[in-house]
Amino acid sequence: MSETRADLSGRETTKRPFERLTRQFNALTRRRFVKARREHELARIQGQPTEGQRDMAESIASLEWSARLAEHDGSLTALREAREFRRLLLRIRGDFERSLEPRPPARRAPGRSVSEITGGG
């Protein structure tokens, strides 16, 4: 998904499409950005993503686009909105990162066995 290109100094650089500086904000660039960002996040998941992980990846992409758009506007109100988008983005990103961690196996609480509960011997 990432592409390698030589920058002006001749060094090889690797950039993902959503890491590029967004110069135009229209429906087409939004669709491309959100798709690339969502695919990047979903590619980090081992196995099939859950519905919650798909929703979080979509939210991460949309919030990041909204923050970039507001920062591009540059007015005081827009910068406040961008700050709020970034704050929400950090919360969802934290939840997404926690969803990627493997869960420890469930331990059975000590107690009576099924046969003791049902009265079977």
Mind explaining what this structure looks like?
- This protein has 121 residues and is mostly helical.
- It is 58% helix and 7% strand.
- It has a domain at 24-101.
- The protein is built from 4 helices and 2 strands.
- It is elongated.
- 11% of the residues are buried.
- The mean pLDDT is 84.
Distance between the termini: 60 Å
> Which regions contain 5 or more consecutive residues with pLDDT less than 50?
none
The total count of helices amounts to: 4
Summarize the helix and strand pattern as letters. Answer: EEHHHH
Q: Helix coverage percent of residues?
A: 55-70%
Main beta-sheet annotation: 2 strands, antiparallel
Structural class: mainly alpha
Proportion of residues in β-strands: 5-15%
> What strand order characterises the main sheet?
1-2
Query: How big is the Rg?
Result: 22 Å
- By DSSP, the count of extended strands is 2
Mean pLDDT: 84
- Shape call: elongated
Structural topology:
Elements: E1 3-6, E2 12-15, H1 27-43, H2 51-73, H3 76-100, H4 114-118
Antiparallel strand pairs: 1-2
